[in-house]
Predict the structure.
Amino acid sequence: MTMDPEALRERAASALLAARDRTRLLTTCVEEPDLVAQHSPLMSPLVWDLAHIGNQEEQWLLRTVGGRDALRPDIDSVYDAFEHPRAARPSLPLLAPAEAHGYVADVRARALDILERIPLCGGPLLDAGFAFGMIAQHEQQHDETMLITHQLRRGPAVLTEAEPLPALVDGILPAEVLVPGGPFTMGTSTEPWALDNERPAHRRMVPSFLIDTTPVSNGAYQRFIEDGGYDDPRWWAADGWAHVREHGLHAPLFWRREGNQWLRRRFGVTEPVPPDEPVLHVSWYEADAYARWAGRRLPTEAEWEKAARHGPADGRAMRYPWGDEDPTPAHANLGQRYLRPAPVGSYPDGESPLGVRQLIGDVWEWTASDFLPYPGFAAFPYREYSEVFFGSSYKVLRGGSFAVDPVACRGTFRNWDLPIRRQIFSGFRTARDADPVAEA
Ligand SMILES: [Fe+2]
């Protein structure tokens, strides 16, 4: 992405504007009581996310990049995510909704003024408009978080889809794809708005493996349930087994059984579980157990990225499975365009050269891997972005979901969460080692 300064400025401004449009939608579609309420102890009140978005923008774009005086230093502590866990945020002295809307609008006007005036070069925060891209991604990530809050909220539907999902499945696909062994380039040193944990690019040796062509579907997951998957400790990691027993889990979050049918709640609507959609709202433990039941395993993070980015013809690492072009609606289900993942096998235009589909968009995919730094990692611009999360507590998710905006989604993008979490838009696909005979 080499761009002249004007094109860069326009890209940064439009990324910020797109994020703000979405923030506005998510914070004006409910009344004030729903903005200040905590809908789940796992989530912040929506009005906390809103003002936190503005506070981060103020700290980075106005104070650090623009060198301006602090607008509201008195609220920095209230909106510091590390100072206050989500469960404690409703009791903080939060800005009221109207005040929060006014604050974020004021910050944004000043940020756009700085963007107009400042050279987009001369340091890592300014080069290619990184700080502006980082803040647009931050806002979009909170928009995804707020969409999760909407999914957890009880009450009638307030979000609607502009259009129904198009029919994009184009025939019978092979169940799995062989990815030949050998080295590939993981991570990036060139993607201008990539975050610290995606860097630097480095070579990895990955032996041959087979990976599912598509994410695991609801229908396939139902077979695991009906086969007694939740009642059989053979399939579960020890911690996972203890967790499902303690909490009485027997299906993905938001599912319930009525007669002989599975129903799910989706943004305020209860509907039959569609068997052909990727399974959604499963924990890492559930994904891992399903894979073992199926005689398979979760892909490692390196396997996932190789399937998504490695060009087998020239050995080059691509930005996306389909090449280097930014995502379009034909490539992937991103950006909250729809409020659901597309049926498995959709998006032929987004498939990898080897034929793997829906790696980008639809559902975040759990991988087998812990969240660890790449060799040569350097924290930037602050340790709390990634470094404090490295270790064996968190598992990596890849590829983004229907709730992720293209600005915060790349073949190199890494997400992480605790293995028990399932309020997130998480699914998975499975893999296995290649059979040496079949591969020869
Ligand atoms: Fe944040």
In short: The radius of gyration is 22 Å. Residues 163-440 form a domain with the paralog of FGE (formylglycine-generating enzyme) fold (CATH 3.90.1580.10). The chain has two domains: 5-152, 163-440. The pocket of fe (ii) ion is lined by residues 52, 56, 81, 138, 142 (CB under 6 Å).
